[in-house]
Predict the structure.
Amino acid sequence: MALLEAENLSITFGGLKAVDNFNVKIEKGTLYGLIGPNGAGKTTVFNLLTGVYKPTEGKATLDGTVITGKRTIDINKAGIARTFQNIRLFSQMSVIDNVKVGLHNIYKYSTASGIFKLPSYFKKEAEMEKRAMELLDVFDLGSERDYLSCNLPYGKQRKLEIARALATEPKLLLLDEPAAGMNPNETAELMDTIRFVRDKFDMTILLIEHDMRLVAGICEELTVLNFGQVLCQGKTSEVLQDPKVITAYLGE
């Protein structure tokens, strides 16, 4: 059984069908790419999968459980985490506190424990601190734990956003244009980071990306969207050579 399965997902905004009968199956442990020209509906698909939008038609299942129609927070608890095309860190919070935000579903204590600083409060806070540092060390961010996140270099902000997403302990990680704004060296480092995350955390990853070097370098399978519809699906090497895909990007 596929970890993620979307069946005929569609959404209409007014008279515009932004996504039309989107179907995909992603097996556990796969590095999967979702590509297409600007405006093809890629981020809309992410928003459908994460509950930002509710589909007009169709459904999505995660590990056999239907997630369509659930709230964003419930979909996150079910096992989907994401990053964004435009980095959305809490810029005036420290690096470690950004990761701790992602741990709120995992480590819990009562309001009374927090107000009165009961032993359970300190116990959970210590556990969160330890786990947050473990994640920061994975991304070589431990030495910058007390920096404001806005003061990190761009590439490290991307890493921090991935670390925060992983703090929610997802089954599926959605990366929306993770290489956007990166130079070639940062992109090469990001490719290594994504592979490392997949292997270390036994993670399934679905990413949107325009950088074809990154797509060809790490994605095992691809779906190509064009005008909201699936144009092509299959192994990366075959999809990138498909004349329909080349035409969609470059024209006749």
